[in-house]
Design a protein that fits this description.
Blueprint: E1 7-11, E2 14-18, E3 22-23, E4 26-27, E5 44-47, E6 73-77, E7 83-89, E8 103-104
Parallel strand pairs: 4-7
Antiparallel strand pairs: 1-2, 3-8, 5-7, 6-7
Length: about 100
Amino acid sequence: FLAAAPGVRQLAGLWVEVGTISTQKCIYSSKKCPGSGLPGKKWQQIAFAHEFPAPPAFLTSVQTLNNAETWLTVGVNSVKTNEAWVSLERAETTSYGQVNQDEVV
């Protein structure tokens, strides 16, 4: 369990940035659709407010349940010093429900 207010701050010499985005961008990979999770297809860019000296640890979680029939987690791709890319990840639940509404990540 981790709770923090949005913003950029320094804690014990380490920079911390907290924020949220809303997205419907979704990836999945299964035997029926291999390779659908390729970068640039359905990824949401997050630009950091603070540029880190090295790629940071990047923690994510789905904060809402707006697409209640679909099991979602967060996929993360390409974490850099100034940005990261995220997507709602459906795993192999592609035959159950749709992603029709934004989820907060």
